[in-house]
Write the structure tokens for this entry.
Amino acid sequence: MLSFQNDYSSTAAPQILTRMQQIEHEQHPGYGTDDYCKIAADKIVKLCDDPEAQVWFLVGGTQTNQTVISAITPQYAGVVCADSGHINTHEAGAIEATGHKVLPLPNEDGKITAAQLDDYCERFYADANHEHMVFPGAVYISQPTEYGTVYTLEELEALSQVAHDRKLPLFIDGARLGYALTSDGNDANLDDIARVADVFTIGGTKVGAMFGEAVVFTRGNTPRNFTTLVKQHGALLAKGWLLGLQFDTLFTDDLYFKLSEHANKEADKIRQALTDKGYDVAFVSQTNQIFITVSDKKAAELAKHVTLGFMEAVGTDRVMLRICTSWATTDEQTAELISYL
Amino acid sequence: MLSFQNDYSSTAAPQILTRMQQIEHEQHPGYGTDDYCKIAADKIVKLCDDPEAQVWFLVGGTQTNQTVISAITPQYAGVVCADSGHINTHEAGAIEATGHKVLPLPNEDGKITAAQLDDYCERFYADANHEHMVFPGAVYISQPTEYGTVYTLEELEALSQVAHDRKLPLFIDGARLGYALTSDGNDANLDDIARVADVFTIGGTKVGAMFGEAVVFTRGNTPRNFTTLVKQHGALLAKGWLLGLQFDTLFTDDLYFKLSEHANKEADKIRQALTDKGYDVAFVSQTNQIFITVSDKKAAELAKHVTLGFMEAVGTDRVMLRICTSWATTDEQTAELISYL
Amino acid sequence: MLSFQNDYSSTAAPQILTRMQQIEHEQHPGYGTDDYCKIAADKIVKLCDDPEAQVWFLVGGTQTNQTVISAITPQYAGVVCADSGHINTHEAGAIEATGHKVLPLPNEDGKITAAQLDDYCERFYADANHEHMVFPGAVYISQPTEYGTVYTLEELEALSQVAHDRKLPLFIDGARLGYALTSDGNDANLDDIARVADVFTIGGTKVGAMFGEAVVFTRGNTPRNFTTLVKQHGALLAKGWLLGLQFDTLFTDDLYFKLSEHANKEADKIRQALTDKGYDVAFVSQTNQIFITVSDKKAAELAKHVTLGFMEAVGTDRVMLRICTSWATTDEQTAELISYL
Amino acid sequence: MLSFQNDYSSTAAPQILTRMQQIEHEQHPGYGTDDYCKIAADKIVKLCDDPEAQVWFLVGGTQTNQTVISAITPQYAGVVCADSGHINTHEAGAIEATGHKVLPLPNEDGKITAAQLDDYCERFYADANHEHMVFPGAVYISQPTEYGTVYTLEELEALSQVAHDRKLPLFIDGARLGYALTSDGNDANLDDIARVADVFTIGGTKVGAMFGEAVVFTRGNTPRNFTTLVKQHGALLAKGWLLGLQFDTLFTDDLYFKLSEHANKEADKIRQALTDKGYDVAFVSQTNQIFITVSDKKAAELAKHVTLGFMEAVGTDRVMLRICTSWATTDEQTAELISYL
């Protein structure tokens, strides 16, 4: 059946599968010490325009968030994020499992603002009992957000400024970063992300790779002995070159950007159709995720033809659904979906 | 200066200090294996009317909450509580430090309801992604609440019923339990608490002891090797008889109840005065804590004569203050306070 | 350069790479809920001859050990293992990071014995202070061991018996299980492993897969909500079918066993050559790892032609080296290596 | 019955009990912000001759070790100690519960040496795989040791030098520090301890206090927000002045030293008697603990008259016992014990 359920249901871009085949007879040293990792890292560092940036390749998103956040957050502190943030909702308590509280702020369209962060810190330090509370110790946002919205460069710079004024590292979870970087109206490019963030990720799993998240510590921010921390979290892949090869491929001929842009364009077609047909679209998103609210009846009808993501019940007889395109979505699939709307 | 800042600013009830003096020349085995601990535990078990109850004596509230909650909450789960709950606000992340997320529900007057808990669980299990989320694994409430309010027996029984229907142990933090048990209109006695809770504490620190929290596991609920867990959390006092002796004293001649009732009576006088003078009292509390909202100017004036607890700014020119009586509050102190109101 | 450094330096068996290519246009549900995972699990369950067995697919060895051990070891307890065990030496403290002490026993040829385990438990419980100590809470062994040796069925049954008498689950780390199952003289087959162990792994990473460890909980031993625990440890692969597909392939036409046997045969040739040439072989191993002790001079000479694993200095002028074959080792490579010996 | 079982079986020195009585009617701010804590800290800082030293008062030894070690040890690292060290043997895994491996070195008479530590670090960094291992991250010793032996100043300075050369903080657990400082032949005074250690403790529980361990961070070494870390570990006593008062008393008129010296003198008498009677004394200790090895028969005979500490079985028919004096031991008790020897 047709599926727009998520952006991680296809194996990998053909370019990646081809290269996997080609290295059948090669031998490589393990744990990311191979040449492919080096080549891929160099390409990313160059795109970031930050010679002090250091790149690490991990397998999945939750393990990456867990490893990075526990490495950058002091023991007496927690990590500030939107209440809708992935670490606060859908990572099974992976952050708390490392001993840190997640400190959620109310989101608007999946975002938090610099003013919110500043106000939170201000009130924290003003509280006479703050030594008995969990300090804000790091800031986590995702670009795009859980709701597919994109922070503007101005918003990111303001968040970064406040975070740094408050001595907090800013971590940008880019599990779907490509979809943000290539969305219409986006004005924060990879070098901007590298400039405002202390650490960020470039997601592969949802953007054409079999798996893989590149972690970029900017401006020499890499925590001491980070390889050991990665290992300690069970996140160091033995055959690390599988990660290097994939990211090398993604950053060859702009593949990462082309795959992302394709998904956005397919989503744009769907967005247009939804508008034309008068659907209730929940967030003004320009990336590959579209959230719509429909009646239970309509949802049941759609479910006969296409698998969508179920988000939540809305009131007593409506539901929010997610339509998610990906780098693998074809024009035909999109047209078929639109025919059911 | 006169102080109504909190209920843990005096050393201990004279009966306790006297007995401390009397045992100067005794020798005791360590770590709670002494006779005083046994005697005190027996008295508590009897009051609970639960022959299978087991009692442990720890030193402080945060360590007790941390030790108990980490012992009763499965690894895949968190602990549900009111967002105003002490473990969520003022324990420096002690629960998360043991790997468990705190799952806050919006409080009303410091309380959560059975319906809220049931709805939370219902929605949790209805969520298609709940395996990627933190399971509710235990329920934490405090009696009285952080705001001095008291759960009725009906409320407690309902919470207990829902918790048990959902296979969740109910933990009642009784850091100020005496003040609830002796408040006007309270209808949940110690044996009721023992019946509805799977584990609860009887706070000594705030009710006449130098320090000490009695942990009562009801109906044979004690976790395996709990002594070792207490030790692992650094909560096993070497000279355990100091705890046993204090709780033996508190449960001799109803001292625990008399001390608590005294504090409530002093608070009642203050409540009456506040009503007479038209103060804005924040919660309808019948225990030893009173929360008032006053103008900044009034707060400054009061501060010249008496130390109160500062809770938070309210709007731009008002503040919430806490007036807290204790077992040690004298009639004279109360009268002096009232004269400043 | 020729390398016998380890058994995880080649990408994957050609059968696996071919199937990866074939599924390019398929779509699958995530997180291991796909059909390939089901098919692969069924095959493994059948081989285990344990209808109650449950199978999970994780990515890497350290994350698997961490997730399993923290799930089966009580909070008041640690995990008993050989001092040479991987979890005690080369996992960067991943077990301790979950709060559990590793309790090492002196190994002989990489093994621990039932008598050692029983004696350890006996002395533990006999110690008057054992409540202040870390309880033995689970037993970890690996088959084959870190030194390539293989437990006999009799040894395994004895360990299992003692573990169960002591109420301890037995976990067998089978990162290289295939090499044990197909070694000359091995008498513990997969169904025997399933019978003696409460949980064990079937390693893919070192036996032909790109990555992947199958975790088998026997006799209905799966911990509650294990999926959530896997997620919490960042070990739940989004595209879980990549694991299912690989293990389905490995357990089609006995590929797993054929790949393993091949490596052992290559190692046998090297062992014969070493014996013929009078080398000092450190352990009597029948699997794919061979440990030799040579002079520094000899080691330097070998290093010109072939990369071997460096284990440790022995005395002042000798070193222990590891020769490791794999499923990918060719007859030509083995012949070339022998020519340098 | 006569008991020489341990040094924490009497409540407290009379001077302390008297002062507890005297403060009955005082009110104090909580959590160590009172004047007694300040006075006591100032006295200790002065004795340490280190104006940058900072002092904190915690309740018990295990919680102190756990709080301090987790604060000073990096996440990628463990704590090096003697295999006989309290944290490795009798703290129920409290260190591992915070995520850190304990890295034991073989003790000699309870001690480790600078050369051992240096060699351990040397071999660690020389290991090609050390990034997959647990880094040495801090050094823990106790003065006196678990076996009552005392490090000489030269030994301490050497350990400190190696630790600092290796960038490791040196933590000295002084649960019985007084007994070391006042033992015959000791040449490391409090200011020496402060000079060689980065953090150390002055134990009260075993030297005249009801409870309490003073933590001294030297030369401005206090970890950021240490109060919050103390709270997070459940180690922040609400009525902190009870700790301040006790340490103020202990450091008034050299009480701490007098109490300690008294215990040592009583032990000296026992040591002399043991020598005279030809006992097999296990360690050359000059502090308040004496370890003897006797036949099972002799042990049974002694047990009729006096309670001693049972250490372990030695061979098939002998046992090691501990005779422990304390500040509370009377001349009469010592004479009676000697009469049974």
